[in-house]
From TrEMBL:
<dbReference type="GO" id="GO:0005829">
    <property type="term" value="C:cytosol"/>
</dbReference>
<dbReference type="InterPro" id="IPR025777">
    <property type="entry name" value="GMPS_ATP_PPase_dom"/>
</dbReference>
<keyword id="KW-0067">ATP-binding</keyword>
<dbReference type="GO" id="GO:0003921">
    <property type="term" value="F:GMP synthase activity"/>
</dbReference>
<keyword id="KW-0436">Ligase</keyword>
<dbReference type="InterPro" id="IPR022310">
    <property type="entry name" value="NAD/GMP_synthase"/>
</dbReference>
<keyword id="KW-0547">Nucleotide-binding</keyword>
<dbReference type="InterPro" id="IPR014729">
    <property type="entry name" value="Rossmann-like_a/b/a_fold"/>
</dbReference>
<protein>
    <recommendedName>
        <fullName>GMP synthase [glutamine-hydrolyzing]</fullName>
        <ecNumber>6.3.5.2</ecNumber>
    </recommendedName>
</protein>
<dbReference type="InterPro" id="IPR029062">
    <property type="entry name" value="Class_I_gatase-like"/>
</dbReference>
<keyword id="KW-0315">Glutamine amidotransferase</keyword>
<keyword id="KW-0332">GMP biosynthesis</keyword>
<dbReference type="Pfam" id="PF02540">
    <property type="entry name" value="NAD_synthase"/>
</dbReference>
<feature type="domain" description="GMPS ATP-PPase">
    <location>
        <begin position="192"/>
        <end position="382"/>
    </location>
</feature>
<keyword id="KW-0658">Purine biosynthesis</keyword>
<comment type="subunit">
    <text>Homodimer.</text>
</comment>
<dbReference type="Pfam" id="PF00117">
    <property type="entry name" value="GATase"/>
</dbReference>
């Protein structure tokens, strides 16, 4: 595997994704908190950072533990750290380098890092400091018009530094550079494939779980479904799945998803707890209060159901890698590590051991594993849907009537997206029921009814999002259908806000 040491760059996860795309397993760890380097580690990558090596309190690392012992690649800050700690000079750039640049690598001194790369290749720069001079033993192997030390190698070692970001797609041959490092220089085998992952994980789960029983809550989402199928492959009927109808799902979703799970051979129990959730939500209007009430009720229901099962000793969860990566926070005078809040999951008090077969996977890898397991595209291709469901798309208090209205509106919108072939082009879509009424006319009648908003966004991971420019005729069609079909709605608006500053959900 490859170890990626994180100095707090926004691109660190992207480096890991690229390495994984090359079918090589890698892990991200904070630069000041990483596991012992054993023989499974074939190479180390030092990430970028928002800090400057010139600052006294910028993140530091004793590089002697790697240099000359393992292949080492410093990216941006990582490269500057290599140069700076060896006695090179790092200074503020005269102009802040941000964006595309042409990297020139000398033919005569071609290194393995740049083999098969064009002599002049487009790279992406994002840095405020620049390496002005390198110490002896360092050989400059690439430069751009404004950066003379854009890449270097330490002679006699497999240590490299690059100022550009190979992980960003604007570095057109960035992936090739990473491949040269990982496959050729580190000697990693490209065998991190969905099919190997499934085989190894199922073997591990068999060993770990033996004849033990596992309980899992499924949501209809990709992560919990793929996690359950892996556990199911390993222990079959000893996996007990619970799918809760919280009364906040999409129209007909509970029945449909339950059937899919049954078709997949899962031992699944559907639990209708709609009333319990509506009672818990009664009168609540604050979004966080609603979320808390839903979370609490879910634990109550799940705890009750789990207690009905005998001899269960494990809780299965669909936790994925972005939830468990310890992130480095380098803001403020000293760098600190913070763990994500949702590590380990909810029911601490249930005293169950936790099994999380997807802990090492990124979302796109979860989907690939899902395809390997032949889970239907219907589940794998689903838009993300928030745990609190329609409750955070109904502004104000929740009633069964409002849920019914929103379910109809949402179903019209989503089905039309599918009919027009737009569903897969949109990252997430849904409808929001607004807490206002507006005047309209229908026939000769004056109406005073509800307003709904439609939202459709393009995104990669939900952290940022753009509203989607859906065709006007499509919006017109959806709007007509909603107003004609859904009683109680006489106005439809389309949300044209991007994130940031707006969030995807309205609550
Ligand atoms: P926001 O609204 O923060 O949403 O831009 C980003 C993504 O997260 C989902 N989301 C949630 N998911 N519980 C969840 O499981 C929640 O409370 C929650 N709030 C937002 C949202 O649907 C979007 O995909």
């Amino acid at each position: 595997k490859i170890l990626i040491l994180d100095f707090g760059s926004q691109f660190t996860q992207l480096i890991a994704r690229r390495v994984r795309e090359l079918s090589v397993y890698c892990e991200i760890h904070p630069y000041n908190h990483f596991p012992e380097i054993d023989e499974t580690v074939k190479g180390v990558i030092l990430s970028g950072s928002p800090c400057s090596v010139r600052d006294e309190d910028s993140p530091r690392l004793d590089l002697s533990q790697f240099r000359g012992k393992l292949p080492l690649l410093g990216v941006c800050y990582g490269a500057q750290l290599l140069a700076h700690t060896a006695g090179g000079e790092v200074a503020p750039s005269k102009i802040r380098e941000y964006g595309r640049a042409m990297l020139h690598t000398e033919h005569a001194s071609r290194t393995r890092l740049f083999q098969n790369i064009l002599a002049d290749t487009q790279v992406w720069m994002s840095h405020g400091d620049t390496i002005v001079s390198v110490p002896s033993g360092f050989k400059v192997i690439g430069s751009t018009e404004t950066v003379s030390v854009a890449a270097f190698r330490i002679e006699g070692e497999e240590t490299y530094g690059i100022q550009f970001h190979p992980e960003v797609t604007h570095s057109l041959e960035g992936k090739e550079v990473l491949k040269n490092f990982i496959v050729d220089i580190c000697g990693c085998h490209q065998d991190w494939t969905p099919s190997n992952f499934v085989d190894e994980t199922v073997q591990d789960l068999k060993k770990k779980l033996g004849d033990d029983k596992v309980v899992m809550a499924l949501s209809g989402g990709v992560d919990s479904t793929v996690a359950a199928m892996l556990v199911h492959r390993a222990i079959g009927k000893n996996l007990f799945c619970i799918f809760v109808d919280n009364g906040l799902l999409r129209k007909d979703e509970f029945e449909q998803v339950l059937h899919s799970y049954q078709d997949m051979g899962l031992n699944i129990k559907g639990v209708d707890s709609k009333d319990q959730f509506y009672i818990a939500l009664n009168g609540l209007t604050d979004p966080e209060d609603k979320r808390k009430a839903i979370g609490r009720t879910f634990i109550e229901v799940f705890d009750h159901e789990a207690h009905l099962l005998e001899g269960v000793s494990w809780l299965g969860q669909g936790t994925i890698y972005p939830d468990v990566i310890e992130s480095v926070s380098v803001k403020g005078p000293s760098a600190t590590i913070k763990s994500h809040h949702n590590v380990g999951g909810l029911p601490d008090f249930m005293k169950l051991k936790v099994v999380e077969p997807l802990r090492t996977l990124f979302k796109d890898e979860v989907r690939a594993v899902g395809r390997e397991l032949q889970i239907s595209q219907n589940i794998l291709g689903r838009h993300p849907f928030p745990g609190p469901g329609l409750a955070i798309r109904i502004l104000g208090d929740i009633t069964a009537d409002k849920v019914a209205i929103l379910q109809e509106v949402d179903a019209i919108f989503i089905n039309k997206l599918k009919d027009r072939g737009l569903y897969d082009k949109v990252w997430q879509a849904g409808a929001i029921l607004l807490p206002i009424q507006s005047v309209g006319v229908m026939g000769d009648e004056r109406t005073y009814e509800r307003v709904v908003a439609l939202r459709a966004v393009a995104s990669v991971d939900g952290m940022t999002a753009d509203w989607v420019h859906l065709p006007y005729d499509f919006l017109a069609d959806v709007s007509n259908e909603i107003i004609n079909r859904v009683k109680g709605v006489n106005r439809v608006v389309y949300d044209i806000s991007s994130k940031p500053p707006a969030t995807i959900e309205w609550e």
